[in-house]
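Sample entry follows:

:::
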Amino acid sequence: MSGPGALREGREAPYGTRPSSPPLPVGLGLMALPGVYRPQADTLLLAEALDREELGPRTDALEIGTGTGALALHAAGRGARVTAVDVSWPAVVTARLNSLRRRVPLRVLHGDFAARTAGRRFDLVITNPPYVPAPGERLPSYGPRRAWDAGPDGRGVIDRICADAPALLRPGGVLLMVHSGMCGAERTLDRLAGAGLAAAITAKASVPWGPVLRSRRAWLERRGLAAESQEWEELVIIRAESE
């Protein structure tokens, strides 16, 4: 995801963890322009999954929805050659600046991931896509909400990634995706399997609801996406491998 904006002292994070939570090592010292998603619990969970993969100078990696570039920099720091894509110009500028500040090379592109990577295949694709269920069929086209709002079932971007993953991965290539259990981990596994990938849930974590989910409580309960008085959200890591 690429947006709820800079966290200020004493302000609650728009989504996910609170500013009082311990800082995430993967995102330490990174700057973020207003409206760019800062590393949170989902970022850390995906970074831990990334650490379980073998990376090196011959690893071509892609990050879809780079935000601050935290995960792309994490992969590049382990030797991978990383291309990062985001639809948000502030996110692209942020990731480029963080790359320069860290002196870690990244190729950061603006636009739709499928269009910007057409004809290329990767050994590793990592993504923390928008996954929060939201009223309305259309995905946001601007503003910080585009980093987390993902349509009525939270799958507006996830399903595209599942469909396009086979074309993005080399034989033996791996997709790592984090998203909420609220938008259907089994559906993701089924879609990836239907696309010919071997997919499994490899990690889970529970995080407290942030203001976005709390503001939608009644709507989420009516749709059967949340239980009454639910306060915690399950995050899952999906790992899919091309055969």
